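Consider the record:
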Amino acid sequence: MVISVRTCIGRLYTTSCIVYAQIVKSPSLQEIHNATRLDMLEVNSKLKELVKSGRLSDARQMFDKLPHRDEVTWTIVISGYVKAFNSAEALSLFSNLWADPAQQMDPFLLSLALKACSLSFSAKQGESLHGYCIKTDFASSVFVGSALLDMYMKTGKVYEGCRVFDEMPIRNVVSWTAIITGLVHAGCNMEGMSYFANLCRHGMAYDSYTLAIALKACADACLLRTGKEIHTQTLKKGFDTTSFVANTLTTMYNKCGKGEYALYLFEKMRTKDVVSWTTIITAYVQTSQEQQAIQAFLRMRESEVSRVVCRWLIQS
């Protein structure tokens, strides 16, 4: 009897040890989750490296072979296509993501899809996404709102773009610049300047591109006084040394009948590009200084700009 009790106890102990060993060796759900997360971090890092180095086709091959993808994986590849101006492939991937119930949508993915709609002028698809954003409250995101605004402006739906902007609960420099740019490019210069005045009145921060587009509106509408005021702001903020601001200033003064001051600004430019030379040659011609226009053209041919253009033509 004693022997049989000892035997039972021994068997129970052995069984307990085996079960304990199996529990220790078997990974928990949390451990499996952590391992998967570490794997995805490595995968996404590799994908990002491929996209960043311009190897988008290699990144796509890797993406297609993945057994598991998370939101970051989708974002990296779709973003790569958008940056490469391949809106068709970006929207195709986004449609696949949309149809996958295991994936979650986020503001950045929606912003990328809306940017792809802007690139391909797909207003109908953009409007569908807008409806989804309203239903899911993603439209309240400043990133999504700015992307919606930009999409409507670039697809020629200026009124809808203005409505999106006016309904945005939060606005940043991107959204303000998008509304002003869209209006100016649509030829609505006075409306664009009205939004620029509101931007300044609200004390919002702005960048050199915002000032450049405001100067373009002044140039197209011949608003010399306002243009001078913006010129003063560029000097205070040090934006006048930026090439596209300097070029727009030169164009503005030239179009407003101040050709001589435009020439003065041109000569002060630290860096002159093709736009700078074209603007100044045009200024000379419009002020009946044909000889100076020819001299400027010859100077451009001897400059670094001419060599850059030649190299670009050869590579094309």
